[in-house]
């Protein structure tokens, strides 16, 4: 079982095709699979449908794939940080399916768990409910949302052992575990690959069964909103 | 004098119960954290954290540690981290006692609009729809009127909804109102604001 690949491009070899659906981890620019996104840009694969909470910013993260016009559709909850996204969307060049953030996360989780749909209160009575089955449970209305099974998941973790058992760091975990779970194939990039046996089995955040290919690399980890306080406020 | 932003935040902080888990939205709601006093409140950040601390000292920012507004923050002793599905599980599952949110419009039946202006603002709802559908109590903090001087408390919302009949209490610069059967009920007036002034500034039915 060798999951380790030398580069992001090598790790994606044979997995890409035009029109495919990709689930990507990350929240804002936190915990995004930077190296795999760069490799997707390089590959030239196009007409992508990408499920990701956000769409990066201009020139970084998924914003790079928007600039090269490789994205046909985004499934996201919030895209407010990206001028190129707005431009393409308002010009009708890019499809956008808004998903409430929790619905998007649960769609990935359930899709990965073999659950094709679930009922939720989120979005009842809003545009999100349009065209969706409604059902009453205990006097409350719920709408049916579908699980997502993506052709490929691209995710980022802090550390993984060579079998793909992964540990995330702080809020960089976010969508990464559920994106990994919903991919038919999952490629993960990490800051450090460690020998199996060196991670505490009780502290694994994502079991290696969800991770098919693994790369290690250096991450820029750009900060979107740098907010600080002064020492005297302590 | 109507309340300013800080006073609105302080009034909203009075709403939070000791020993609860709370989610604060972006803008004025974020300021609420500065006014919780001695109460033991644990802040949730829906990107996957319970126990949110203040902004870091300069030079101590961690790109792996941000809040839902993508701002760098810190952890506290009780902090836990989790994935997005778990985060919204606790939101949708009713474990979060209250959410304090900003709004563009609130209707007299508790409808809330705060995510989209068609043709203009297409940013997305983020976690707002899940929060208003799931948390115990939804408290809106916003200016009573928009920049044109029009009431933001309406008979019915004109913008696409974030949630239907979800708002419990509204704190504005003019006072505090509850969503009740038949319309809004005045709970409190900001110091120096008369009931007539508040009524004149409100389109929604006041009962």
What is the topological layout?
The complex is a heterodimer of chains A (234) and B (207).
Chain A: H1 8-11, E1 21-24, H2 34-43, E2 48-51, H3 63-67, E3 71-76, H4 83-90, E4 95-98, H5 101-112, E5 117-120, E6 134-137, E7 140-146, E8 152-161, E9 166-167, H6 176-182, E10 186-194, E11 213-216
Chain B: H1 5-14, E1 21-24, H2 28-31, E2 42-45, E3 49-52, E4 75-81, H3 84-92, E5 98-101, E6 105-107, E7 112-113, H4 128-134, E8 137-141, E9 153-154, E10 169-171, E11 175-180, E12 183-189, H5 195-200
Parallel strand pairs in B: 1-2, 1-5, 5-8, 6-9, 8-10
Antiparallel strand pairs in B: 2-3, 3-4, 6-7, 10-11, 11-12
Helix pairs in contact in B: 3-4
Structure description:
The complex is a heterodimer of chains A (about 230) and B (about 210). Chain A is α/β, with parallel strands linked by helices. Chain A is about 20% helix and about 25% strand. Chain A has helices at about 10, 35-45, 65, 85-90, 100-110, 175-180; strands at about 20-25, 50, 70-75, 95-100, 115-120, 135, 140-145, 150-160, 165, 185-195, 215. In chain A, strands 1, 2, 3, 4, 8, 9, 10 and 11 form an eight-stranded mixed sheet that branches. In chain A, β2, α3 and β3 (about 70-75) form a beta-alpha-beta unit. In chain A, α5 (about 100-110) packs across α6. Chain B has a single domain, classed as Glutaconate Coenzyme A-transferase (3-Layer(aba) Sandwich). Chain B has helices at about 5-15, 30, 85-90, 130-135, 195-200; strands at about 20-25, 40-45, 50, 75-80, 100, 105, 110-115, 135-140, 155, 170, 175-180, 185-190. In chain B, a hairpin with a 4-residue loop joins β6 and β7. Classes of the chains: A alpha/beta (about 230), B alpha/beta (about 210). Chains A and B meet through α4, α5 and α6 of A and α3 and α4 of B.
């Amino acid at each position: 079982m060798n999951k380790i690949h030398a580069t992001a491009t090598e790790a994606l070899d044979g997995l890409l095709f035009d029109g495919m659906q990709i689930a990507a981890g990350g929240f804002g620019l936190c915990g995004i699979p930077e190296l795999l996104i760069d490799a997707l840009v390089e590959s030239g694969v196009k007409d992508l449908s990408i499920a990701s909470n956000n769409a990066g910013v201009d020139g970084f993260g998924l914003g790079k794939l928007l600039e090269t016009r490789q994205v046909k559709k985004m499934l996201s909850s919030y895209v407010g940080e990206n001028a190129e996204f707005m431009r393409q969307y308002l010009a009708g060049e890019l499809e956008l399916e808004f998903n409430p953030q929790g619905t998007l996360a649960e769609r990935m989780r359930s899709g990965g768990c073999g659950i094709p749909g679930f009922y939720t209160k989120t979005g009842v009575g809003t545009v999100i409910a349009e065209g969706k089955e409604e059902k009453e449970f205990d006097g409350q209305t719920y709408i049916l949302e579908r699980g997502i099974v993506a052709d490929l998941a691209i995710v980022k973790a802090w550390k993984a052992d060579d079998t793909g058992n992964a540990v995330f760091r702080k809020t960089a975990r976010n969508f990464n575990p559920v994106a990994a779970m919903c991919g038919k194939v999952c490629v993960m990039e990490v800051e450090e690959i460690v020998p199996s046996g060196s991670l505490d089995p009780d502290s694994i955040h994502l079991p290696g069964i969800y991770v098919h290919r693994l790369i290690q690399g250096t991450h820029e980890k750009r900060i979107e909103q740098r907010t600080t306080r002064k020492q005297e406020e302590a | 004098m109507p309340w300013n932003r800080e006073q609105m935040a302080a009034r909203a902080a009075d709403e939070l119960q000791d020993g609860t888990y709370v989610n604060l939205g972006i803008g004025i709601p974020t300021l609420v954290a500065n006014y919780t006093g001695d109460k033991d409140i644990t802040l949730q950040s829906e990107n996957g954290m319970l126990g949110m601390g203040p902004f870091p000292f300069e030079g101590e920012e961690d790109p792996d540690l941000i809040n839902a507004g993508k701002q760098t923050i810190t952890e506290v002793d009780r902090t836990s981290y989790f994935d997005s599905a778990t985060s919204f599980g606790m939101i949708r599952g009713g474990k979060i006692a209250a959410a304090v949110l900003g709004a563009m419009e609130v209707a007299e039946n508790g409808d809330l609009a705060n995510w989209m202006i068609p043709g203009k603002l297409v940013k997305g709802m983020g976690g707002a729809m899940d929060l208003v559908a799931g948390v115990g109590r939804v408290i809106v903090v916003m200016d009573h009127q928009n920049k044109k001087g029009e009431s933001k408390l309406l008979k019915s919302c004109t913008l696409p909804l974030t949630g239907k009949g979800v708002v419990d209490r509204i704190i504005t610069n003019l006072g505090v109102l509850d969503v009740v059967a038949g319309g809004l009920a005045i709970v409190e007036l900001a110091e120096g604001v008369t009931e007539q002034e508040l009524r004149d500034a409100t389109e929604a039915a006041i009962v």
